């Protein structure tokens, strides 16, 4: 790479000095004219050469800036190329905001319509799309990649077209639309089957990433084959060797071949240090962390992850932030650091939410369908449709629409009846279950009275005389049994100490008795009636008991705060979650129904949010 850079700079100086000598023989005006003409002609060669060879250090950029300062007559086309050069430079260094600024400069310029300018702008859209992908803005990323593809297809420009296919494949990959991702990348690979250059391996490595998500065995075969190929190809960029090594190390870790994995890690590290790019360093540190966890060791490179957080936040790089927090929360789990575990789990969930919602995913897939539909319509537009055919189509569409509307009304009516019957059944089941639970509670109290208090009293009555000390002990035991029964029936001193203190006592008792991590955030000014407070207390009690029994969680949090005219309660855990609709219909859902009924009885609103990352119960009550 250094040889290539020096060669271009040498040619530049040679040509420039030769031109300068010839210019000195002419008049001053001729000197200036020839000098500017030379710089303008040479400018395109410099930019194209630096971009194609990825020469992006500060010396290269300064040389380009000096060329621009030397001439006052840069054309719009040359400005377009320079902005693209800097956009590409910042993209490779993961400076997404700066890269987007130069892309936006290009898109704001008016330029002559010709092939070169159109291709330059197509690359601008490609760079912009890559930045948006990393920021989690999938909808715009797919729009910009489609803009670029139209131009590359128009001019049959294979390099740009294949890169856009790879960009689309990555978008669909992060949306978990793996089949679409595979189709896009396969179209790109077909163009380079006979010419296995850097472009070919760039596409192959993207395909491996996609296959790992849903065709594991096929991805393993591709990883081993590509790893063997790249070992014997010195002309291929080290970046691609680093990436395939990372995939191969992952394969070895998954198959418990840890010694060989460590050997490949040690072989890869010098390549990463030599390449010295953020992306290659990220890949290497991700897999090094996986190796640490496979050997039940804490992160040996934790400082790298902590240092990456600042830059990722600055660039809104939510993809990288999610990866960082994933490894940090795993490290906290291994180290049994519950505070860090709770913090990094929350940060991981926040980064995941910022990437893309289900609604965004739906919109993006609609864009894909719209793009494909537009292409078909362009082909169909070449054939003129007859008027009578249009009329028949309108009649058919009207008839079909009417049929669908009537059918939809029929289905809706049946669905409403079904839901009504289902709700009646659930209410009936809840009532029966409530009565059964009341009866069970009575039996439990009777048993505790009979086996505990009754037994102790009979002992005092029939056994030999006790000493005063023994009598006092027996009486204390009976008092404690009575208190225990009373506590289960109604919180001790609830009316006197209030809701906030009762909740804190409950949390402390559950933490001690169950060895479970629970935190609370309570800001309450006794804004509810005591009857409402006891129902709210029972909801918190039921919610926390359910978390401890069923959620497999490591931690939970209770938040009770007042805002304006409402009181908000949130009970949250980091467990395995559950399918709310299915559980609600289950005959074992008494606890959930009990919580819902209690909240409805005090005119409150309740919402359950549950997934694989945990469950949150959100409650809103008017003060």
Automatic annotation (TrEMBL):
<dbReference type="Pfam" id="PF02518">
    <property type="entry name" value="HATPase_c"/>
</dbReference>
<keyword id="KW-1133">Transmembrane helix</keyword>
<keyword id="KW-0802">TPR repeat</keyword>
<feature type="repeat" description="TPR">
    <location>
        <begin position="122"/>
        <end position="155"/>
    </location>
</feature>
<feature type="transmembrane region" description="Helical">
    <location>
        <begin position="394"/>
        <end position="412"/>
    </location>
</feature>
<dbReference type="InterPro" id="IPR050482">
    <property type="entry name" value="Sensor_HK_TwoCompSys"/>
</dbReference>
<keyword id="KW-0732">Signal</keyword>
<keyword id="KW-0418">Kinase</keyword>
<keyword id="KW-0808">Transferase</keyword>
<keyword id="KW-0902">Two-component regulatory system</keyword>
<keyword id="KW-0812">Transmembrane</keyword>
<dbReference type="GO" id="GO:0004673">
    <property type="term" value="F:protein histidine kinase activity"/>
</dbReference>
<protein>
    <recommendedName>
        <fullName>histidine kinase</fullName>
        <ecNumber>2.7.13.3</ecNumber>
    </recommendedName>
</protein>
<feature type="signal peptide">
    <location>
        <begin position="1"/>
        <end position="22"/>
    </location>
</feature>
<feature type="coiled-coil region">
    <location>
        <begin position="357"/>
        <end position="388"/>
    </location>
</feature>
<keyword id="KW-0175">Coiled coil</keyword>
<dbReference type="GO" id="GO:0000160">
    <property type="term" value="P:phosphorelay signal transduction system"/>
</dbReference>
<keyword id="KW-0472">Membrane</keyword>
<dbReference type="InterPro" id="IPR019734">
    <property type="entry name" value="TPR_rpt"/>
</dbReference>
<dbReference type="InterPro" id="IPR003594">
    <property type="entry name" value="HATPase_dom"/>
</dbReference>
<feature type="domain" description="Histidine kinase/HSP90-like ATPase">
    <location>
        <begin position="533"/>
        <end position="622"/>
    </location>
</feature>
<dbReference type="InterPro" id="IPR011990">
    <property type="entry name" value="TPR-like_helical_dom_sf"/>
</dbReference>
<dbReference type="InterPro" id="IPR036890">
    <property type="entry name" value="HATPase_C_sf"/>
</dbReference>
<dbReference type="Pfam" id="PF12895">
    <property type="entry name" value="ANAPC3"/>
</dbReference>
């Amino acid at each position: 790479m250094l040889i290539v850079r020096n060669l271009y700079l040498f040619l530049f100086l040679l040509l420039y000095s030769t031109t300068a000598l010839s210019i000195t023989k002419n008049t001053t005006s001729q000197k200036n004219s020839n000098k500017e003409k030379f710089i303008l002609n040479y400018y395109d060669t410099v930019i194209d050469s630096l971009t194609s060879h990825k020469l992006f250090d500060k010396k290269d950029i300064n040389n380009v800036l000096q060329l621009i300062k030397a001439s006052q007559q840069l054309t719009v086309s040359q400005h377009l190329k320079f902005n693209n050069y800097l956009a590409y430079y910042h993209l490779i260094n993961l400076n997404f905001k700066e890269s987007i600024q130069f892309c936006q400069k290009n898109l704001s310029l008016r330029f002559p319509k010709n092939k070169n300018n159109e291709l330059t702008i197509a690359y601008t859209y490609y760079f912009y799309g890559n930045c948006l992908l990393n920021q989690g803005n999938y909808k715009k990323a797919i729009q910009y990649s489609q803009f670029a593809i139209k131009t590359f297809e128009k001019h049959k420009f294979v390099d740009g077209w294949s890169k856009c296919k790879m960009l689309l494949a990555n978008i669909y990959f992060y949306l978990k639309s793996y089949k679409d991702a595979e189709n896009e990348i396969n179209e790109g690979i077909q163009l380079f089957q006979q010419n296995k250059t850097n472009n070919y391996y760039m596409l192959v490595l993207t395909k491996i990433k996609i296959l790992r998500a849903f065709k594991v065995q096929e991805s393993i075969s591709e990883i081993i084959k590509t790893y063997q190929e790249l070992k014997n190809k010195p002309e291929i960029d080290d970046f691609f060797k680093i990436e395939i090594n990372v995939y191969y190390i992952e394969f070895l870790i998954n198959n418990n071949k840890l010694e060989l994995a460590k050997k490949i890690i040690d072989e890869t590290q010098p390549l990463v240090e030599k390449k010295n790019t953020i992306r290659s360093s990220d890949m290497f540190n991700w897999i090094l962390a996986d190796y640490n966890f496979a050997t039940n060791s804490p992160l040996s490179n934790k400082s790298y992850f902590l240092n990456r957080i600042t830059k990722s936040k600055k660039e809104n790089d939510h993809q990288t932030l999610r990866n960082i927090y994933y490894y940090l929360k795993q490290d906290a789990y291994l180290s049994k650091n519950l505070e860090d575990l709770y913090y990094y789990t929350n940060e991981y969930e926040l980064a995941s939410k910022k990437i893309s919602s289900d609604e965004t995913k739906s919109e993006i897939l609609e864009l894909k369908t719209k793009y494909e539909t537009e292409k078909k319509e362009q082909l169909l537009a070449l054939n003129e449709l007859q008027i009578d055919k249009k009329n028949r189509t309108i009649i058919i569409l009207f008839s079909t629409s009417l049929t669908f509307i009537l059918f939809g009304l029929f289905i809706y009516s049946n669905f409403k009846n079904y839901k009504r019957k289902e709700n009646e059944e659930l209410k009936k089941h809840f009532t029966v279950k409530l009565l059964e639970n009341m009866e069970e509670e009575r039996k439990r109290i009777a048993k505790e009275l009979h086996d505990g208090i009754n037994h102790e009293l009979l002992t005092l009555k029939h056994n030999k005389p006790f000493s005063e000390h023994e009598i006092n002990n027996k009486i204390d035991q009976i008092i404690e049994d009575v208190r225990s029964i009373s506590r289960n029936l109604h919180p001790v001193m609830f009316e006197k100490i209030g809701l906030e203190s009762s909740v804190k006592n409950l949390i402390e008792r559950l933490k001690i008795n169950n060895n479970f991590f629970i935190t609370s955030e309570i800001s309450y000014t006794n804004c509810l009636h005591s009857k409402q407070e006891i129902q709210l207390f029972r909801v918190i009690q039921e919610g926390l008991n359910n978390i401890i029994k069923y959620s497999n969680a490591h931690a939970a949090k209770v938040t009770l705060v007042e805002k304006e005219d409402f009181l908000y309660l949130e009970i949250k855990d980091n467990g395995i979650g559950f399918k709310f609709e299915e559980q609600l219909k289950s005959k074992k859902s008494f606890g959930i129904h009990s919580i819902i009924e209690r909240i409805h009885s005090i005119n409150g609103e309740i919402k359950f949010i549950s997934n694989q990352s945990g469950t949150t119960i959100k409650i809103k009550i008017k003060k």
